[in-house]
Structures are given as structure tokens and as C-alpha cells.
Design a protein that fits this description.
The protein has 353 residues and is α+β, with helices and mostly antiparallel strands. Helices cover 27% and strands 26% of the residues.
């Protein structure tokens, strides 16, 4: 009798995965968007969100917040129009809390997607986190984990001394283990330490090492699992954090079983950018995939025209005049609210059988 009860319980627990396995969904869009300081208008204890309060430096009111939400929803909806389907998975960076995510997915332009949210509060002193939106009709979530940053590495840290290391706070990495069309995936949503003051090359390398080591452990625990690393890396594809410590490769032919493919490397070489600094293009907003998504069976990354990746930009998302002409149309410029979208363009890839 006990054995029968155990088997029935196991069937109940496994049913979401099994039902997902029976639904073959064809094309899936996997994206990432740094939404640039998505704060609500109320103070969260312990967070440095004072600039984004009605009495703060940005005079952040409910009306401005509403514009910001509507703008971001428009971009997400327009990516749906371009692809004919909603994102299966959309990673986000620079979100204050779960409430702003609830407000975003409730926007009329994207409410039909019925996005679900995975979010963990992190230790960043600015109060910004990463998060994942997912389409519950296309993916079932098995588990999620918030992976903290640490200095437990053989890397020689030169930009932060011991005291600075003890005080160091940055965003956790969000890992979401899910099932899409019967296949197991591990999604890592990242926002690596910033370049502010020309610091951080070594800590970004450590952040990449943490993600890589965790992904290898997931592959040992779940042979054949398909891993996707996405985020604002604050580094370009050829930089050491991504090319050395995350084992990112420029071409699919170079991807071995311990590597990741970075489809945005060749795009950057062609002059495409997801953000710009002093007029030069950068692609910090990368999405990398492991070997089973390149050379494996089932769902694999597919080209979209010339490239395997896409930087999504439209004229309305781009500054049309002034100092920042030709760059992403940001929310503020020189301290003034200009009702833009973000200082980053979103990126995405497509996977199909």
C-alpha cells in the first residue's frame, strides 16, 4: 500500500513536466532587457532608492513611473509583433522589487502574454535586482536559485583591497531550471559588476567563473541540460570574463562540450551595439548558449538572417537628436526626464527543433 501511495504522489509531482513534454511548441524566443532603473515611487527599507521618490533628485512621480512602464511594455509587445509569438523567457535587469514586475506584466500591451515572474531580493546597495519573466504555457519552472557573489577564487584581485572586498555588494545571479517541450533548461540571468571608475575587470571575471562553475554542476546533475546565460555583463564578448572565464566562443564550429557560444561577438565586430559609450558600440547584453543548444538534438539556436542573435531597436527607441543621437533613448538626460525607454536595447535569440 505504501508503495502505491508513493507512486501516485510521484505521478502528481511529475505531471507538470510530463504535460509540458507533450506540448511541442516549435519556435521559442529567449530574450534579455536591461530596463534601466525600474523603480516604483515608494521607499524600500534598506535600499538606496531615494533618487526615485517624489521628493528625490529625479522627482520620480506616479505619472513618470506610468510612462516608464508603458514604454517598456511597448518594446516587449513590438518584439512579439516581430516574431509572431511572445517570449518564452525574458530576463530583466535593474528592477527594484517584485511589485514593479507585477506592474509591468499587468500593462495592457503585454497582459495577454500572462507572464509569470521569478525574482529573489538581492544585496545590491542601489536596490536593483535581476528577474525572469516566463510564459507558463511554454515553460514549466522546476526550481530557482539566487547565487551570491564571493571572492573564493584563485583569481588575483587587484581592483579591490581586502577591506573593499568585505564591503563589496553586487547583484546575485538568478538561476531558473525549467522544462520546455520536454527538455530541461537552466537559465542564468546576470548583471555583472560595473565598470565605474575603471574598476571591476577581475570581479567580472569572478562573476563569470561563478556562473560557469554552477552551469557545469547543473550539467553533471542533469546530463544534456541546455544552459542559457544572459545579462548585462558590463563587458563585451571578447573580454576575458566572457571569452575566458565563461568559455564563450565566437563561432559555432569552435564550441566544444565545455564551451558556450556567444552569437553577439560577430555582431559587435560588424558595428552593431546594444549600448554606446562615447559613440562606440558595445554589446554588454549578451545571451550565450551551451553546446547542446548548438550541436545537440531537439531545440537548438537558429540564425535570424545573417546572425544567430538580434539586437532589437526601432526608431522610437533611439535618440533622434542632441548629444546622444543614434543611441538608445534613455529615461533621463542630463538630469531631465525625457520619457525614453532604456539606455540599453534588448537582445534575443530564437531556438527551434
Amino acid at each position: 500500500m505504501k508503495r502505491i501511495i508513493f507512486l501516485l504522489a510521484a505521478l502528481v509531482l511529475l505531471s507538470p513536466v510530463q504535460s509540458c513534454a507533450k506540448k511541442k511548441g516549435g519556435k521559442h524566443v529567449i530574450g534579455f532587457y536591461n530596463v534601466e532603473n525600474l523603480f516604483d515611487t515608494t521607499h524600500d527599507r534598506g535600499k538606496n532608492d531615494y533618487d526615485y521618490l517624489p521628493g528625490g533628485a529625479n522627482e520620480w512621480t506616479e505619472d513618470k513611473y506610468a510612462v516608464k512602464l508603458a514604454n517598456l511594455a511597448q518594446v516587449i509587445a513590438d518584439m512579439r509583433a516581430e516574431n509572431g509569438i511572445w517570449h518564452t523567457v525574458l530576463g530583466l535587469a535593474e528592477v527594484e522589487n517584485r511589485q514593479v514586475l507585477e506592474d509591468l506584466v499587468s500593462e495592457s500591451a503585454i497582459a495577454p502574454a500572462r507572464y509569470k515572474i521569478v525574482h529573489h531580493e538581492g544585496p545590491d546597495r542601489r536596490g536593483i535586482d535581476v528577474a525572469l519573466l516566463y510564459n507558463p504555457s511554454r515553460m514549466k519552472v522546476v526550481e530557482s536559485e539566487s547565487i551570491p557573489f564571493d571572492f573564493n577564487s584563485s583569481i588575483k584581485f587587484t581592483t579591490y583591497n581586502k577591506k573593499e572586498q568585505a564591503d563589496f555588494r553586487t547583484r546575485d545571479v538568478l538561476m531558473v531550471h525549467g522544462v520546455i517541450d520536454g527538455e530541461h533548461f537552466a537559465f542564468y540571468v546576470c548583471h555583472f559588476p560595473s565598470r565605474r571608475g575603471d574598476k571591476g575587470q577581475d570581479v567580472r571575471a569572478r562573476a563569470a567563473e561563478i556562473v560557469y562553475d554552477h552551469s557545469r554542476e547543473m550539467q553533471r546533475r542533469h546530463p544534456g541540460i541546455k544552459c542559457v546565460v544572459m545579462g548585462d555583463m558590463n563587458d563585451n564578448p571578447q573580454d576575458a570574463s566572457l571569452s575566458t572565464y565563461l568559455h564563450g566562443r565566437r563561432k559555432v564550429a569552435d564550441v566544444g562540450e565545455e564551451d558556450f557560444f556567444n552569437p553577439f561577438w560577430e555582431m559587435l565586430e560588424a558595428g552593431i551595439g546594444s549600448l554606446y559609450y562615447r559613440g562606440d558600440p558595445n554589446i554588454f547584453d549578451c545571451i550565450l548558449v551551451n553546446e547542446p543548444l548548438v550541436h545537440g538534438q531537439g531545440l537548438t539556436i537558429k540564425k535570424q538572417g545573417r546572425y544567430y542573435g538580434r539586437v532589437f531597436e526601432k526608431p522610437y527607441m533611439t535618440q533622434q537628436s542632441g548629444q546622444y543621437r543614434g543611441t538608445p533613448f534613455r529615461t533621463f538626460s542630463n538630469g531631465q526626464f525625457i520619457a525614453g525607454y532604456s539606455d540599453h536595447y534588448p537582445t534575443y535569440i530564437v531556438i527551434e527543433p
